[in-house]
Amino acid sequence: MPKQKRKVTEVIGKKNKKLKKASAEERLLAPEATQGSQEARPEVGAACRDPELSSDLSPEEKRVLERKLKKERKKEERQRLREAGVTTAQSLPAKRSGAQLALDYLCGWAQNHENWRFQKTRQTWLLTHMYDGDQVPKEQFPTLLAYLEGLKGRARELTVQKAEALMRELDEAGASGPDSLLLDKTQRVRQVLQLLS
């Protein structure tokens, strides 16, 4: 009987704790003032400063409430700025494209073998775009061929298979008429096949 009584009191204690947490959140999140007045709004550390709330909430619950309040204040600030007509153009640094990252990876391989690190995504990008003259410039292609010499295992096998399939396609397409882009692509495919076969 004492065990059951202890379980019941634990369950009741947990329910009370949840109710206190919910009522504390409602008190903190309830709009007590108009949007314009700053002084009536609860601050970030309101849960920590209010002795009644600090005894009810655990440190983790306080952090969660503070994050929610901070998020709401940011949202209100953005809305106020939007209403005032002020645009907040965030100048994010321009992300480098996959092409640029892959070409930098290739240059890093060519210039500094000792400190170079293998990156699967960069190699995959290079292998899928190596026949495209726009993606991999003519100046970079000899470096790419040197990189392909070290290609091993399944990547080497797949590259040869894809090059052979592409060569067949280009032979069929080339029969209809010569095209400068097709000739450049055909030349690149032949070079890769000669190197890896």
Map the helices and strands.
Layout: H1 2-29, H2 46-49, H3 51-56, H4 59-84, H5 98-111, H6 120-129, H7 141-149, H8 153-174, H9 180-196
Give a nutshell description of this structure.
The protein has 197 residues and is mainly alpha-helical.
Mean pLDDT: 77
> Helices and strands: which structural class?
mainly alpha
Radius of gyration using CA atoms only: 32 Å
Q: How many alpha or pi helices?
A: 9
What is the helix fraction of residues, given as a range? 55-70%
Gross morphology is: elongated
User: How much of the residues is beta strand, in percent?
Assistant: under 5%
* Largest sheet features: none
Strand count: 0
Q: Uncertain spans, ≥5 residues at pLDDT below 50?
A: 31-52
Order of helices and strands: HHHHHHHHH
- CA distance, first residue to last residue: 82 Å
